[in-house]
Amino acid sequence: MLSIDNMIKTYRRDGFYLAKKIFEPKRAQKAANWLRSQNLKKLAKTMMDQSPGDTLTKYQNIHHGDSQIAKIAADPKMLKIASQLTGDKVHILSSIVNLKNAWYGRVDYYHQDYAHFEPRGYKQPTIINCFAFLDPHNINTAPLHIFPGSHKMGLLKHLSVFDVNGTHKLVVSPEDLNKSYKKYGHKVIEAEPGDVLFFHTLLIH
To answer: Is the pLDDT of residue 139 over 70?
Structure first.
């Protein structure tokens, strides 16, 4: 792991920081296996937590309780790094597991998370995302794609669309994606169980 100063420098420059082995890989896999052993249909609270062919695509508010998933979501080590990167005290606003079936997982489009928070009254983009990996994350498992440094573009105008599953989405326009790609490039995140990706709420992903 980098020094705190270099972690902060990387986060401010790129809009993200990938911390390796924050959790033991066996612990991360144990949490994933615990979730797979549950009745996924019962964990879906609303229709928005499902999609065609998927019993559960979103398992929400997971940081409560004493399950293996909850313990990772609320782990003090992760919160400490988030606080160091933002330079402020942090608390958990929400927590979620995104599940994707092999071959036909739920579709998502490029966006900035702050596009959802700004209309709710959040005046500054101070929210930080903490993405803990429970399974191997690479080009063969539908990985996260980002535009490093794109958080410097500020909040972009988002298009309002419906995806192939009929779910409403806010998405960055093709024109702004082209501008971001030309200026900052594009990166596929590759990670292992136990790694954690911290990324800015304005980062295009």
So the answer is: yes
